[in-house]
């Protein structure tokens, strides 16, 4: 297991609902089979309704989180407004492509509400190719499992509360079938009115 | 080289303990090496990893050599792993420089970010440092104790208690069982002694330990 | 002087003999799924057979009625799967000749298959094997195996290419994993209950349409073999062919 993507483990998922989005992650940080920390969140708030999820090699997750925090803050100061999710998506893409021949080993996802409150989600490969999706985006060592749960549990136009239940069940059942993910989970449900953050009770094995 | 270090936090203190052995492969050359460095009045670092004996040997030869040899060896020394001591020196002096320039100490959180970034950059360089760190600090502004575990990739974890090196195999479960958020200083010392006892009982390797405690008064030696 | 014709091969010097290696295994894709109910069991599989990116056929049955109200599948490398099932069928036939037509219980079938698989411990059948039927009390039973014969009776199991996609869904919908009684603050688990045949078939169809959507080795058709005390019945549903 010298694959950089599966040294530390972790999973993240984003979903689109009716005028809302949800984004969630597990909180495990491991070193191969050893669990190091259960407080390693992989979803970061970049604006009022904009979120960035990063899974993969943990050192790169931290490096990029700080890099995008810097770029996001500079954008806010220069433009005197918040970055749109679409803008963040393109920023992530170009930033990753700068390292085309020595990439960061991460699978980022972006989720948020646009200017008019329209939901937006997307995912990337490690060198910044964007995957625009209408329904859901998965990433991390439990991505196979997440594809299975999301594809069968998801339906379009869910209300925020139903979207929360759907994304939570999709994540929880997926990470329970992946030895490198789990050890806690965090879910954000984002509507135009408010952002709700919930910490889930999960299996601890 | 086999090494072993522990860190335990309480509400207003951090304990750091490290083994004191130095050597190569199966040979122990020293059993009184201090592998905990005080970086500033409220910050200390326990370090383990490749000690880089080759490098120190190389350095000594370099000092005795001619300038011509020096130039020749420049490329060669790039190929070998750099010293963990060298990295800790670098960190210590840069934090000192920050203190002199700004007339203020770096708090544990930003110090951990600085150290992590250095390792994260190092791992993509031609000669990465192979060093694992436990950083303990007392944040005087927020009156909190912090413990960070940083590995050779620059993976930083914020932890209530941690072990590194061979200690992970025997002491993590002990800490899981006995640690709790309101643990007192005396109880934490007892827990540390339990971990050291577990190391003596279960590991074939003979370790001797030294330990420190960090609190609002600063860094003090902790007799075990 | 001897004039020789320049040979392309003369330059090749061999200090060691050239080794040629035959790879005895391949992956034929496909995925299978078994669920046990109160008085029935189902074993389902898609009907696509692939090798690499090529589709060999869109209809090659994967799940078989092997007699005595037992259905069986061995998914992975189809040649090994076919060989294993042939061997089991043959053994069952001789069992009947030798024991006056006695019925083989699913319990005994399960143990026997372990020995078939472990018998090739050092050149294994490259398959994930599932069998389904009714136990001696008439309850639905599914047994699942690893390639060398470790086995277990379970309520449900997915095997093959899309097993990792389907299994967490089954945990959730069959064993109600991560489901709690509303208002119990996550303290009270949702009570387990047997699913009806209609519910099970709907779950199987959902699982396969989802796997078809995301996995290139799954698709074309879904064949479900249903075991009840009346016997084995087959249902077929088309899946996406892309």
Q: Can you walk through the features of this model?
A:
Chain A: Keywords: Proteasome. Chain A: This is Proteasome core particle subunit beta 3. The complex is a heterotrimer of chains A (205), B (224) and C (242). Helix content of chain A is 30%, strand content 32%. Chain A has 205 residues and is α+β, with helices and mostly antiparallel strands. The radius of gyration of chain A is 16 Å and the shape is globular. Chain B contains 6 helices and 12 strands. In chain B, helix 1 runs antiparallel to helix 2 and helix 5 packs antiparallel against helix 6. Chain B has a 5-stranded antiparallel beta sheet, with helices on one face. In chain B, strands 5-6-7-8-9 form a 5-stranded antiparallel beta sheet. A two-stranded antiparallel ribbon of chain B has the order 3-4. Chain B is an alpha+beta fold and 224 residues long. Chain C is of the alpha+beta class and 242 residues long. At the A-C interface, helix 3 and helix 4 of A face helix 3 and helix 4 of C.
Short description:
Chain A: Keywords: Proteasome. The complex is a heterotrimer of chains A (205), B (224) and C (242). Chain A has four helices and twelve strands, in the order E-E-E-E-E-E-H-H-E-E-E-E-H-H-E-E.
Describe how the helices and strands are arranged:
The complex is a heterotrimer of chains A (205), B (224) and C (242).
Chain A: E1 11-17, E2 20-26, E3 29-31, E4 34-37, E5 43-45, E6 50-56, H1 58-79, H2 85-97, E7 106-113, E8 119-124, E9 130-132, E10 136-140, H3 143-153, H4 160-175, E11 185-191, E12 195-200
Antiparallel strand pairs in A: 1-2, 1-10, 2-11, 3-4, 5-6, 6-7, 7-8, 8-9, 11-12
Chain B: E1 4-9, E2 14-19, E3 22-24, E4 27-30, E5 36-40, E6 43-49, H1 53-64, H2 67-79, H3 84-102, H4 108-123, E7 131-139, E8 144-150, E9 156-158, E10 161-165, H5 167-178, H6 185-202, E11 209-215, E12 218-222
Antiparallel strand pairs in B: 1-2, 1-10, 2-11, 3-4, 5-6, 6-7, 7-8, 8-9, 11-12
Chain C: E1 31-36, E2 41-46, E3 49-51, E4 54-57, E5 63-67, E6 70-76, H1 78-98, H2 106-118, E7 127-134, E8 140-145, E9 151-154, E10 156-160, H3 163-173, H4 197-214, E11 221-228, E12 231-238
Antiparallel strand pairs in C: 1-2, 1-10, 2-11, 3-4, 5-6, 6-7, 7-8, 8-9, 11-12
